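Subject: Sanity check before I submit

Could someone independently write out the structure tokens for this chain? I want to compare against mine line by line before I put it in a report. The sequence has 245 residues.
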Amino acid sequence: MPIYHGRRGAQSYGHDIGILLMECFNPFPPGDVGNASTYGYPVLYETVEGVTIESLVERGETAAIDAMVAAARKLEREGVKAITSDCGYMLAYQDLVAAAVSVPVMMSSLLQLRFMGSLIPPGAEIGLVCAHEERMNAGVLDRAWPGRDRTVRVAGMQDCPGFREAILDEQGRLDTDQVEAETVAVATALVERHPGIRMLLLECSNLPPYSAAVQKATGLPVFDFITMIDHVRAAIARPVFTGRY
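---
Independent answer below. Compare away.
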């Protein structure tokens, strides 16, 4: 057996991905970023006090910067190999957190837009389903994808009753069948309005449970928070290949 040495600041070991959470009262079913059983590898959560759905998603405020940086550094001390978050609008903290730690940082599912754009031909479009359409403005998209050369079509979930009550209003009850139907309806309507869409991105960390249903309904590739996290995790935990030749 090898010899192990303690890591200063670590209370536990073996975590691949650190996840910064907002303060919220949302159920996190399997498939959600906030449910540890979503992943086939160990993750570690840290809640950032002062960052809320109301302040970040609905008002567009960037609060509790010191707390965010401190939480990210704590995750790094615990030994995580990369850090993410549980909200696409945490893009506002991307540069701050990346500058504060030495591990890869992926604070927003929106970081995939540039990569997605490289997969489709000129003139093709990307569909973006987000938690709050008004907040997903040109400034946010420009920050996610500077100099973007593909059109991004946006539709929000803010007026869907099931999503609104469970996620934005934090009522503490989530009807996954209802929210799945709402997500599929928003995505399919977006594709019908804009037939040039060739790929979809579900921005919100609460939407990956419904990605398969959206894909089945639209026939399109669907990206979300989990595709991003899985992609980066694959890079920081490369397997040793075995087999026959």
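---
OP: Matches mine. For the report I'm noting this point. The longest helix spans residues 176-193.
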